Amino acid sequence: MIDPRLITEKPEWVTAQMERRGPAYAAAMGKVTRLNEEWKAKKSELDDLRHQQKTESAKMRDLRGAAQAELRAKLKEYSDAIKALGETVKDLELDREEAFLHLPNLPDERIPTGGEEANLVEEVIGTPRSFDFEPRPHWEVGESLGILDFEAATRMSGARFSVLIGPGARLERAIAQFMLDRHGERGYVEVSPPLLVKRDAMVGTGQVPHLEEDTFKTDAEEPFYLIPTAEVVLVNMKRESILSAEELPVKFVALTPCFRSEAGSYGRDVRGLIRQHQFYKVELVTITDQDSSAQELVTLRNDAENILNLLGLPYRRMLLASRDMGFAAHRTYDLEVWLPSEGSYREISSCSNCTDFQARNAMIRYRTAQGEKPQLCHTLNGSGLAVGRTLLAILENYQNADGSLTIPEALRPYLGGASRLTATGFEA
After folding, report:
1. Highest CATH level, class, for 5-100
2. Would the pTM of this model clear 0.85, i.e. be above it?
3. CATH fold of 116-427
4. Residue 15 has what DSSP assignment?
5. 190 φ, ψ (degrees, to nearest 5)
6. CA distance 420 to 417
7. Burial zone of 290 (CB within 10 Å; 0-12 exposed, 13-18 middle, 19+ buried)
8. Which of 5, 84, 170, 193 has its CA 20 to 30 A from that of 390?
9. Residue-level pLDDT at 182
């Protein structure tokens, strides 16, 4: 949640920033402003009534008989009015707080304004391979190797699910373990978290209410949400904490399944592993102080890029424009891997600085020194990487004309030294 004081202190500036995020958010800002003004007016009216009640009540000790009875009746009217107005103020406050949750983080003023078309290519890393045959899409490569089965998944679970079999499951596991090991070397503490969380945790990171329709949740009066990303649990690891400056930065990494309904993506990437309801992802989260978060974003982004470099996958780094960033993001870099079958780059990691947006919801603070007033932390997150998309990128970039797959050198120690995968299994 953005700082509520800004709505009162800099309403025009906040409105302009929300317009940079998109028309819907500018409209949401209008609703917040209206509710805030209504709340302030009613709160002022309530304060006036309480003051009048206190002033009239002080006269009681000087009155007797009918005058005292008359004042007592008047004070009862004050009490009833204060109670009713108090309920109105409480309801308006709840409505205002809920409306605040529909406002995204303020965008970095240095990033481009616009949607996907305004994203900036910062750097292209690696040269796409030249094939002497027509490269096949990853699902054809996987099916021909006998490691990928979409039909079985569809029979069990419906569309947007997949089954990895034998060497495919082992390759996926090797990719994930490789990522965890590399990030561990970079100082991230591995966490094995819950996959079900309460609503407060989802609100804390900004997934709810904004992405409510994109979540899976249990059917209960107080539902549990299946995590759409480990970002939710890793950020909430320090929920309602006051950290010392010496503890920062806190760095977490986790490998988890992620669950997304993909609402609004009908017809997009219906084939293959690009857009699944369930997928594995290695997630990185950094919790730091306000002065360090800009540099920590570069560090986190470099850690994600390191995985792509070690795997020898061509990619490009994008600085996202204001309307293409995630809800909680202040500044975001996307890493897009090259897919030969499409002749294009596709997102494999998104690395964001969320400043104090999530920390305000989750009450994650730090003290610069003993006795000093706590300040809100800054939180950052990034995929390090999405495991399924890394697998599909390997299937496409390392495929051979004879149907075999060359294993990237970085993964060979995790696969018993195997350098190739064929339809009969791994080979040295």
Report:
1. mainly alpha
2. yes
3. BirA Bifunctional Protein; domain 2 (3.30.930)
4. H
5. -75, 140
6. 9
7. middle
8. 193
9. 98
